Amino acid sequence: MSHFKLIAASLAVISLVACKGGDSVKPPAETSIGTVSNKPVIKYDKFTYSNYDKVQMTHLDLDLDVDFDRKVLSGTAEIEFKRLDKAANELVLDTKDLTIRSVQIHQSGSWKDATYALSDADKTMGQALTILLLEDADKARISYETGPGAEGLQWLSPAQTAGKKHPFLFSQAQAINARTMTPVQDTPAVRITYSATLRTPPELIALMSADQDPNTPRDGEYEFDMPQPIPPYLLAIAAGDIKFKAINDHIGVYAEDYILEESAEEFSETPDMEVANTELYGPYRWGRYDLIVLPPSFPYGGMENPRLSFLTPTLVAGDKSLTNVVAHELAHSWSGNLVTNSSWLDSWLNEGFTSYVENRVMESLYGVERATMEQALDMEGLKRGLKEAKRPELTHLKMPEDITHPDDAFTSVAYIKGANFLFFLEDRFGRDVFDPFLKDYFDTYAFQSVTTEDFLDYLSENLREDHPDAVTDAEINAWVYGPGLPDTARNPVSSAFEKVSAVQAKWLAKEVAAKDIDVASWSTHEWLHFINSMPDGLTRAQLKELDEAFSFTGTKNAETAFAWYMQTIKADYKAANPALRKFLMTVGRGKFIYRLYGALQSNGKADWANKVYQKARPGYHPIAQRRIDAILEQ
Ligand code: BES
Ligand code: ZN
Q1: By mean pLDDT, which of 68-72, 131-135, 434-438, 493-497 is the weakest?
Q2: Predicted pLDDT at 32
Q3: Residue 519 carries which DSSP code?
């Protein structure tokens, strides 16, 4: 272990002790925020304009009006920073689609107008805001407003909500959209604490990824404080006619009224997930853990905003079959939010680790069979993803430097190949050794950002040195810097899936009719395996037989519906089109709709897809609009 790392490790242990005790979390000492005080900072993240290697933000204070009429956030951002390079005379921030009204710097105890400049706009990166720093300047204050088309914000009209009476706003800052909400050093290599005042119409509740009083009076002015340092992509806002229901003393659900009770029931096992997680990887260090069920246009399954995971309503299936997404977002409280990838090219450190932890937690709550089914479904998805990859470098865990948008780093490779690398290590070292190793990794790098190489060094020094025969360099390199799925990968075999496959084979061979298959005990997972593993070339008649027996078209379970529509598109089974159209009109979750539009496009149904999209587009999130525009342009 290098000298620098030793210091970093011991500081992290000190902050760990200070953080024990759940609700009474204290911000870690200044010195343990990031590795900046111990290790020379180099500019490693190419998706930021900021000069975080020279001057680094430490705190953000927002004071914003949430203006639903104009669809803008308007107010000020006050930024505290520290100089890593004493000679630095400017602070460079990321902005995108912001109108900057004025900039001041705080110097010798008073505020003065600052000299600043905005660079030309880039369609991905936005604009650099460069502020001249006079010698002893220690704060900057920017008066600004967001653009009505800000990619990180979706403004819903009352008609687009379930309640129909009030508007709704929610944010999505990951990966590089924090800069569309506020001027900020928008890189996961920087950590900031933040505070905020938000003003909304008085009938609405505003929430952030910060401390939250579920009983706060509805008065239109909301104050927040986030004492734990977070990377800016975890800044989050939601505002709407939102109600709260407690699950236990520090976990609860926020949602629109129509889905509140069902959500609390669907996610009632979240406290058990927290226990399983802490037993494996140490204390939950963020105070409360609440969930918010957003409107259906939320473009992700979930988003790990600290203290307040954002969720799609499509998880509320009625049978707790899709709660692995909650396990996933909660798991990010260790992998991602506590120990963060230094750049999006290392996103497997966030998503692969989290997918691994998610599966361990699912196993702990529901047993090996369910965990194995989820691994097997994921593996089917990874194999498809690997086949579809445009070039081999995109199947490396460490993403190539030349990707042009960080979203391209979030493929099944980061998630599932990443998780499988950890399954491989777990299998080789054994859980007795690997579990405490991973716990120590989270402790050592708590509230810091790491690179792939940091992890590999840590692995060498803390695990491989003591167990030199467990894995070879070549095996590790194949996982991290090599293409495809290494042959050392675990092969998840689910006996339940084998039975499903056996009866599927009989049906395909016409030895059994669909209506005579005994499906009484099948879970959502078995249905998904049954549908997804169908061979290419199914006929319309075959789909009709399945649909008559199992009523797939229009099913309420969004995962099953999605799997089914992928088949109906391939087979041109038109009877499903009205339901598919309805699905595309109401669900904005990217995982489903990007692939559905892609399949329509590549199966000769671009006209129909474009017609539906024209109608659906205004209701989609700006992120989904950008992605589907690109899919349908091809
Ligand atoms: N952090 C991601 C969502 C995300 C990824 C937002 C990339 C912006 C850019 C979140 O934790 C996630 O992975 N969600 C998954 C669920 C999971 C079970 C695979 C999703 O949305 O489907
Ligand atoms: Zn994730």
Answers
A1: 131-135
A2: 35
A3: -
Q: What integer pLDDT is reported at residue 122 of this predicted model?
A: 98
Q: Which of the following is catalytic: 274, 329, 358, 374? A: 329
Residue 151 in contact with ligand 1 by CB distance below 6 A? no
Question: CB of 351 closer than 6 A to ligand 1?
Answer: yes
| Residue 415 designated active-site | yes
Indicate which ligand has the atom closest to the C-alpha of 294: 1
The amino acid at residue 360 is: R
Percent of the chain with pLDDT over 90: 92
CA 557 to mean position of chain CA atoms: 22
pLDDT tens digits along 150-208: 999 999 999 999 899 999 999 999 999 999 999 999 999 999 999 999 999 999 999 99
Cis peptide before 175 (omega within 30 of 0): yes
pLDDT > 90? residue 365: yes
CB 147 within 8 A of CB 98: yes
Q: 300 CA distance to ligand 1 centroid (A)? A: 6
Contact of 301 with 294, CB cutoff 8 Å: no
CATH number of 45-240: 2.60.40.1730
- Our answer to whether residue 194 is catalytic in this structure is no
* Phi-psi region at 32: left, alpha or beta (left = phi > 0; alpha = psi -120 to 50): alpha
Q: How confident is the model at residue 38 (pLDDT cuts 50, 70, 90)?
A: low
Torsion, Cα 563 566 567 572, to 10 degrees, reads: 150
Ligand 2 centroid – CA 33 distance (Å): 23
> Which ligand number lies closest to the CA of residue 405?
1
Tell me yes or no: is domain 496-633 CATH 1.25.40.320.
yes
Domain ranges in the chain with CATH number 1.25.40.320: 496-633
Q: How many CB atoms lie within 10 A of CB 40?
A: 9
Q: From CA 264, how far away is CA 363, in angstroms rounded? A: 22
Q: How far apart are CA 530 and CA 508, in angstroms?
A: 12
- Residue 484, sorted as left (phi over 0), alpha (psi -120 to 50) or beta, turns out to be left
The average pLDDT across 324-339 equals 98
Q: Where residue 26 falls among pLDDT bands split at 50, 70, 90?
A: very low
Ligand 2 centroid distance, CA of 218 (Å): 32
pLDDT digits (tens, 9 = 90+) for 394-419: 999 999 999 999 999 999 999 999 99
Nearest CA to ligand 1 atom 2: 303
Tell me, using a 6 A CB cutoff, whether residue 378 lines ligand 1.
no
Cβ 304 under 6 angstroms from ligand 1: yes
Q: Which of 415, 458, 597, 620 is catalytic?
A: 415
- Cα separation, 16 vs 25, in Å, equals 10
Q: Could you identify the atom of ligand 1 that is nearest to the CA of residue 415?
A: 19
pLDDT above 80 (res 15): no
| pLDDT score for 371 | 98
Indicate whether 234 pLDDT > 90: yes
Checking 307-312 for CB contacts under 8 A at 24+ apart, the result is 307/209, 307/210, 307/211, 307/212, 307/226, 308/207, 308/208, 308/209, 308/210, 308/212, 308/236, 308/238, 308/254, 310/170, 310/172, 310/236, 310/238, 312/589
| Shortest-distance Cα residue to atom 5 of ligand 1 | 410
Strand partners, 80: 59, 139
Q: Is 559 in the pocket of ligand 1 (CB under 6 A)?
A: no
Label residues 74-105 b or e (16+ Cβ within 10 Å = b). Answer: bbbbbbbbeebeeebeebbbbbbbbebeebbb
